[in-house]
């Protein structure tokens, strides 16, 4: 079940990213991100009342808050990198960094010992995720944008670091923590985003339609973290993080099904490799 929970987490995160990206085209991405975290907090609080039987533990709450700081940082740098027009650099670099750091930390610091089959799956997942997220770089970058690639790469690395912090900190919460760390994480993410909004000219306003969509997007992302925590109870951190990090493949599939976008050759190979990686990790 751990593999299934991790894949459901990736599915929820992918849907959240896809819808959030569409909403960011119609409104300010910072406002969308902030409202999304508020929506995620509402879902997490509801989950606490309906699912949690354990009292709030200060240590677990602190790990959840640290995870939320990673969420806020990851979103800010990811969106800033994309705003610089280098999506083909930001998405794969941030995704791979978000995988690589938890895997290294899991092995060196947390005592994870993946089987040879799991290592093979991890090795296949890295190029798979790169190809799926990168797609056809020539179609996404114009020569005039090459000056932005270095700053965008830095943003991508920082975003990946935030994503890695989110996953690693949440993994440190106790097995009996239930959903409290997800709730405290949404509070921390809001605390990270509020000063940025106050310093920007975006304000906090959004149209009712965009606000409702952003709130639902944030709820879906919070649901992804709930499934991630469930997966951690049955799988080691390294395997859970890799499987949960296949979320960039979901916007690609939805883009084809909903927006009638075409799958590039690189993305097609990436999807095939991702399927192989999932199979190796599932049977490891």
From TrEMBL:
Example GO CC term: the record gives:
membrane
Annotated source species: Streptomyces silvensis
Domain EamA: start-end pairs: 1-133
Q: What is the lineage of its organism?
A: Bacteria, Bacillati, Actinomycetota, Actinomycetes, Kitasatosporales
Going by the UniProt record, its keywords in alphabetical order are: Membrane, Transmembrane, Transmembrane helix
The residue ranges crossing the membrane are: 6-23, 30-50, 62-79, 86-111, 117-135, 147-167, 179-199, 211-231, 237-259, 266-283
For this protein, the record's Pfam families field holds: EamA
Q: Which domain of life is it from?
A: Bacteria
Hey, what's the signal peptide range on this chain? none
Output this protein's name: Multidrug DMT transporter permease
Task: State the family it belongs to.
Answer: Belongs to the EamA transporter family.
